[in-house]
Amino acid sequence: MDWLHAREAARRLGVGYSTFKQWIYQGGVRTTRTRGGHHRVSTAEVDRLLAESGRVARPRKVARPQDAPGIVALSTRNQLRGIVEEVRTEGLLAQVRLRVGDEVLTAVITRDAVTSLGLRRGQPAIALIKSTEVMIGCEPRPANRTGRRPRSEAGTRSKP
Fold first, then answer.
1. Could you give the 3-state DSSP secondary structure of residue 117?
2. Domain map of the chain by residue range?
3. So what CATH class is 78-137?
4. 98: exposed, middle or buried (C-beta count within 10 Å: 0-12, 13-18, 19+)?
5. Angle formed at CA 12 by CA 123 and CA 118, multiple of 5 degrees
6. Which has the closest alpha carbon to 73: 150, 36, 126, 5?
7. What is the CA radius of gyration of the chain?
8. Three-state DSSP class for 122?
9. Dihedral sign, CA of 114, 120, 125, 131?
10. What does the pLDDT read at residue 101?
């Protein structure tokens, strides 16, 4: 589990640091305190707060086109950030369950999409909702030391 400083958590939530500290003091945010008395917030708690507010987390780093190929920005306003809970593949299709806060969203996408995105349990992903369609996406993965992108786990099937 990743832990964030209170200032970084506030930035990701799009609120001021002093506002976020008041939320902590009022008991609205679950934190852990260091030996020095500083608050640390889990990324899961930030995701929970984002889901409650209906907002999407601010990106940690703005990807430049030379950093990673693919889409950098989308016009879709309904974006739900969550964690992949389950991926089931069979034939040409795959069922992806995404946990967004306390809710679970299920999308049926192609097996090729699961393979190219490298979707697996526990991975952060974004559900893009446009009218009657739901799409699953994720931020580009960094290249390894050889400059190649890691191979996805093609042909694997998560246990039911």
1. helix
2. 3-53, 78-137
3. mainly beta
4. buried
5. 15
6. 126
7. 17
8. coil
9. positive
10. 85
Mean per-residue pLDDT of the chain: 79
Residue with tokens 């640091």: 17
Residue type, 70: G
CA distances, 160 to each of 19, 46, 89, 97 (Å): 42, 28, 11, 12
Residue 21 near residue 6, CB atoms below 8 Å = yes
Q: What angle do CA 119, 121, 126 make, to 5 degrees?
A: 55
Spell out the CATH class of 3-53. Answer: mainly alpha
The H or E element that residue 95 is part of is: strand 93-100
Residue range 36-87, pLDDT digits in tens? 999 999 988 888 888 877 665 554 444 444 444 555 566 667 788 889 999 9
